[in-house]
Records
---
Amino acid sequence: MRTQVAIIGAGPAGLVLGQLLTNAGIESVIVELRSRDYVEARLRAGVLEQGTVELLRDNGIGRRLDQEGLRHDGIYLQWPGTREHLDFRDLCGRSVWIYGQTEVVKDLVAARLGTGQPLYFEVSDTAVHDIETDRPAVTFLDADGHAQRIECDLIAGCDGFHGVSRPAIPQASSRTAQRDYPYGWLGILAQAPPSTDELIYAWHPNGFAMHSMRSPSISRLYLQVGVEERLQDWDDDRIWTELSTRLGHAGWELATGPILDKGITPMRSFVSEPMRYGKLFLAGDAAHIVPPTGAKGLNLAVADAKLLADAIIASRAKRARTPIRTAGSVRAEPATLAGRGQNLLDSYAETALRRVWRCTHFSWWMTSMLHIEGSDPFARELQLAQLRYLSSSRAAAQSLAENYTGLPYGW
Ligand code: APR
Ligand code: PHB
């Protein structure tokens, strides 16, 4: 088959890219390793930056988000004896929305299927070909085991950290930067009304804890655990006791309830460069991973998709322009317009990476400030000094607020 853009992966990056392209009249084919049920059930993060919400709304995917999403105008930062509220609207005039990535993916899949543009689930043996030429292609086996080939103008590698796109870039042309943290998050989803109106990020000598939520009746909570910890050593009682201790605050009580899901996730920062090689463009987790503390993973994937879509749309607009015929000659397009589309595609990797590194720093900074590593009193006092600074300096709090609620796409 032939299309303009072949998209590998139906996570947030691939699905948002597909939607933005469709809305601009550009054809794409999406291929996804997993089943529809699987991608719609995968439990992931839940905080949407204001820019992510606006982008989804502007592209016709905001209806359920507007009905069911919870607008949060700030967060609580906590350490023993203190629970400080940071008011994002006051600090930077922006908000975030609580709406699970699973819900975002459901809305995006439904929108995609509604457009009639192809989306193949349960594909296997996905491979990219000829990415250094003008005739790149993607091959795969469809769900029935039939070999398929997509000829395209360019390939968007949106297939997450374990995908096939990033490894297709020759090692000699790529470099990675990585930090593995010596701890992970034990996360639970609980049938319990949230005990807080906004998210609580808590520093505690036993380790970091966080109280998030998914709806007025479902809470999402996290505990810092060592990388070597095993889930079977954490029964429900132990989890609730530890959450109550680390999130404890005078006059406040944590509501408990049946645990619907639990899991341990390791934490890592990872950036792979370049995000473009020939006709292959990487977006989202395929190119970078952040630890979840700054709630940036999903939002970064959406931001990459937006930057890549803008670049593709601009380059198409340029090619679609019919040359203006004058008597006996063809007048060239104005130089600035002619160059713009290709320039945006050429600069996609650089523009995206600049923002990626900003978010990588923010996520690392939030993580380092809130997690306990070793027993060094010097390190702990520095963390507490930083938390007190955030609660006493408007400038410091503003910096956190503008990063948390999301920097502009072209940052
Ligand atoms: N062929 C086709 N699809 C693939 C392949 C393959 N070889 N390998 C992986 N995929 C699919 C995965 O099954 C997944 O659905 O690519 C998709 C990638 O989606 P995500 O991992 O969600 O990545 P991304 O869209 O970049 O979104 C990043 O997701 O992992 C979270 O915390 C992360 O919130 C962040 C967001
Ligand atoms: C979540 O709700 O899953 C969540 C919220 C904030 C984070 C990370 C995860 O920083």
---
Amino acid sequence: MSVDLKLTSTEIRQLFLDFFASKGHRIMPSSSLVPRNDPTVLLTTAGMQQMIPFFLGRETPPALRLTSAQKCFRTTDIDKVGNERSLTFFEMLGNFSVGDYFKRDAIAYAWEFLTQVLKLPADRLYPTVHPEDDEAPKWWNEIAGFPDDAIVRLDENWWGPPGASGPCGPDSEIYYDRGVEHGCGRADCKPGCECERFLEIWNLVFMQFYQDLDGTRTPLPKKNIDTGLGLERLSMVLQGKETDFDTDLFRHIIDHFATLARTSYGLNARTDTSLRVLADHGRALVFLAADGVLPSNEGRGYIFRRVLRRAVRHGKLLGLDKPFLSEAADTVINLMKGHYVELATQRDRIVEILSLEEKKFSQTLNTGLYLLNNLLEELRQNNSHVIPGEEAFRLYDSHGFPLEFTQEVAAEHDFTVDIPGFEKAMQLQQERSRAAGAFTQGTDVEALTAVLNRVGPTDFTGYEGISGSSKVVGLIVDGAEVDSISAPQSALVVLDATPFYAESGGQIGDRGDLSNSLGIFQVEDTRRPLKGLIVHYGRISEGYLRLGDSVQANVVAQRREDTMRNHSATHLLHKALRDILGPQVEQRGSLVEPERLRFDFASSRPLTASELAQVDEQINRWIRADLPVHTNIMPLKEALQTGAMALFGEKYEDQVRVVSMGSSIELCGGTHCASTGQIGIYITIQETSIAAGIRRIEALTGRGAEAYLRRRSSMVDALSAKLQTQPEMLESRVDQLTQELTTLRRQVAQFQREAAQRQTQTLAEKAQDVSGVPVVAAKVDVPDDRVLREMGELVLSNLNRPGVVALASNYPERVGIQVSVSPELTRRGLHAGKIAGAVGQRLGGKGGGRPESAQGGGKNKAELGAALALVPELVKQNIG
Ligand code: ATP
Ligand code: MG
């Protein structure tokens, strides 16, 4: 059966929006493909995306009934593109109810729109529902007259956040029967079948539950409706076409590519697949670029790259060897700009970015394919069918040839790729580059000199502001000048003028970004490797940057402001030190960072506590006086006459910059606050010696000082709480506790001595008689060798007559021993050192010492008993 109304896709889109507007819905413009305020989602995949905050009650909707035609992009469907009904980029028509109407009206509106407005034959439409949903079949019956057994139950008709918490519910999908000729012919073929007969066109989602993380579902107080109707599929049905690609949304685009490839659509299955891929991907890239997605190696920029590369590869399969995507952009733009006006306004950008990326990748592809074919030839001669991992990595790393492509080409020639080998090579490379450090400075100098000779010194505009428009006049990658850079290359960028401060005079270099509509360069550091030349070091994170491009240069404001506070404070510190300690104070170095400042100066002695306090008080007085900061350029001689402080040994130009605030006057090229009040507050946190005669002061200002004081203050609160007292009483409380601790320690020591005394007595009493000599050989428990020795001496004296004592104690790592012999017995041939030696040896270690007292030990704890048993034996053998 044919459909009698031949509507264009533009008319269909409009009919949909008008229909729902007539049912009280507010028409919402399509939101961007890049979701705002939702970093968890890379690209918009459904009309519902922009409604989520309304459904979750986080934002108030402009109306309870909403409708839209939404641009969508689904990466999950990339590999399906080329079949008849799946696209990466497509338009989803939708109507939404935020706690207003529910199932009955959603079904009634859908039915009315399909059968009354579009006049689709009712007998071709098949509603499906979820098996657990008893309401939806009731409404389908009442509204459209479907008997219960004509409504297909499908388990997959459930919408919800998989494995997460959030709103969810059953859905009802409407299928269109394209006719038996499209079917698989099986008796049980029905909507939901894998074959091409039944086409899902519209999904009505009934959001009625809230699902917990553990899977528990509770009914939502306000139930929502979210529907999605694919414009391409609907157009295909209404225009009586076999595929999405035969509709008026695609035909022009397909034909454009077919003409370029000197073929036509419908001739051959293989070229048709490639033509479909080009049409879909080409359209998708135009829309991605229009919404500001720029090629990069991460996130959505990487999706852009993947789609573009796949398109270029299919272009190659079609024999296209000139850039074709940027050429086709206008066809897409002209077809779609009626509804999506951003395509027209962004036209130049879209074409530019596509052509840059396409050219770059075509080169990569050509080089890569050439090298890969040579490699395959070589391997074939060696009878190998595996591409070594290092080779695949070299193609990727040195030539940018993607691994997926190596794999694809390999497969075409019955080769495989050693993936673990590839990953290993990648890991090795990462370790190497970490070791090498970020910037290769030495080799850059030559290229930078060439840039400086060509364009002259950089104009520094950073005294007046922290952003501005500039022109790219030099690009350097790996020591060589280049015309353009693309994400994610590291590079050096030179501008004609820049607000970025280059590290000098102790003040560190600025960070920020350089951006225009084609790319973003992240400035990680700014330096002046050659006199007059300011160089931005960093990485392009998205898109492209070309020689001659205009860019907006933006310094990170907060970092710069913190740095300025610290720099102005450094001048005040210098002056305060001279005022308080005397003019012999001489600056020897300084470091001005956003987080802190450091000032080194010559002084033969540390500052006293009172001098340090005076310095802090003086600086903060100047800060409160809010002294204006003046800068003047003047001849060096004149500057020195006004008493400006200059760095000893530093070479100055004839014309110098003089920075003055109050009585502080210094020669300085750095960036400063407008007045001292902006410093906020100053605190010295440390004063140390760094070399003979050189002291260092570290200090904080502004935000850093504030955070420091807050940390200290909450530390005092926490300590007071722990010690159960008030902050004011903290000191006396600590004194009191220290006192208590001393008393307790003394008592514990006393107890320990008494306990040891008792133990030594017990040990002495247990002495055995060996040839008339009392001998103690026992294991005791003491913390260390020192206590063990003391104990040995005590036991010996407790024997009350000449004797021998050997004690052993188990420590975590080893057994320690102590042997003590009374002097009377040493004269009769006993020797503590020899006994300790024998016992130690038995323990797998050694021992030795004087005749009266000796130590030893070993690790063999199991031998402890046997080792001690040696002692009486030795006494018996050696006693004269
Ligand atoms: P399918 O299973 O066919 O991919 P889906 O279940 O993913 O569809 P939904 O998420 O319910 O589809 O999206 C609602 C409607 O959007 C679908 O009924 C269909 O008309 C359309 N749609 C979804 N994905 C695509 C796509 N990749 N290309 C074109 N249209 C699509
Ligand atoms: Mg899908």
